[in-house]
Amino acid sequence: MFRRFFFALALIISATSEQCQAQALDVIEQANHYTIKIVTAVDYPFGSDRKGSSRGSGFLVDKERGWFLTNAHVASKSPSTIRASFKDLPSSAIEKIYVDNHLDLAVIKMDPTKIPKDAVQAKLQCEGEAQAGRAVIAFGHPWGLDYTATRGIVSGTKPRDGEEKLQTDAALNPGNSGGALIDVESGVVLGINSSSFAKSLADGLNFAVPAKQACRILDLLRQEKNPAPPMLPIDFATTTKDRELVIAQVREEWVGKLQPGDRILAINGDETARFGSRVLSHLRGEKIALFKVRRGERIENIELNVPTKLDEVKREGVYVSGMLIARSTIVGYDPSVMFIQFVDDASTAEQAQINEGDQLVSINGVKISDLPSVLSTFKKFEGREVEIILRRPRFNLISGRFEHYVRQLDVKDISEISDRKPKR
């Protein structure tokens, strides 16, 4: 009897294993028909971006419109040139449709006539939760090994760098970014592969942007609405309790309506909105929001007008003498302060000992407070030497002051920089 039992059990295990293997093969075959390889080139990097080219992944989500999902860091928040290709096909030019300033997420577009007929749209998980323990496949191009699949499981949903992320032990390496994290059983895309801990620190700690967040953005874009999140007049705090989101500070129009210490229980009826990114997701494209909060021992339902000012990625600057000047890329920073965003190697600006992160105070005695004044003043002195004053972000604890420096700069090679082509 025991022999028959273990024989039957072995048959069941074998059949299950074969079924799982068949499902994985189907998933990989589908992924080969919606995944693209992306090459991005950045000449004028803003913020933490770097000059040069990089490679990543993306996947088709709207064949008719030619839309793909990828990471913001793959498409780049800086002005960039992007090309992408399907498997075994030549590359095509790519246009940015939307790059998010909060999620590591971008929507990009290929000319629909360049999309092969056998390409398919990936199916996204737009409802419900990605359950811990689900078997997944991460698909992409790790270390230049094109169209590669790695297996793992979903470990749960975790907050990371202020964002909600899916945690997985499926291996992610450079080149996987922007690719699909796929449920093996259903073939549905659960997330967009995004980041991982350094292998020297931890193994198997990798993260993806939940597909549910992308669905809201895609829906708004299809309605021809701006999906950028509003600039919220509140700050969030988390506690040691799982997914407890607390109001830390309240500013501007929401003062007196929300209070520090309020616990967010639901947004627009969604009781799972206990991450900052989920709050923003509910407020994208909306005019009114209903917050359910616990205030002390009471439950409060508070209707709020959603701010009209949006948190958009706008990269505009002036390139002169080998350096890029623009306002801070940090949301909420004083827009009148002009920063040195980037200094090219062996440039005139580098020779003048100008550093990335320096703040431009004046040019030949002309106070600088916006990009038009930067451009007009440098153009006035093009081909000549000017004296500039910089403030370097080193706070002197003894004097209570920032350090200022005088530099001499030969003014040349002036260009306006934006997501449009540089223009002289």
Task: Using brief descriptors, characterize the structure shown.
single chain; 6-stranded antiparallel beta barrel; 8-stranded antiparallel sheet; alpha+beta; Thrombin, subunit H; Pdz3 Domain; 6 helices; 424 residues
Helical amount: 10-25%
The largest sheet, given as strand count, sense and whether it forms a barrel, is: 8 strands, antiparallel
Instruction: Specify the oligomeric state.
Output: single chain
CATH topological fold name of the largest domain: Pdz3 Domain
Strand content: 35-45%
Task: Count the DSSP helices.
Answer: 6
Care to describe what's here?
The protein is built from six helices and 25 strands. With 424 residues, it is of the alpha+beta class. It folds into four domains: 32-114, Thrombin, subunit H; 135-222, Trypsin-like serine proteases (Thrombin, subunit H); 234-305, Roll (Pdz3 Domain), CATH 2.30.42; 317-417, Roll (Pdz3 Domain), CATH 2.30.42. The strands form five sheets. Strands 18, 19, 20, 21, 22, 23, 24 and 25 form an eight-stranded antiparallel β-sheet that branches. Strands 1-2-3-6-5-4 form a six-stranded antiparallel β-barrel. Strands 7-8-9-12-11-10 form a six-stranded antiparallel barrel. 36% of the residues are buried.
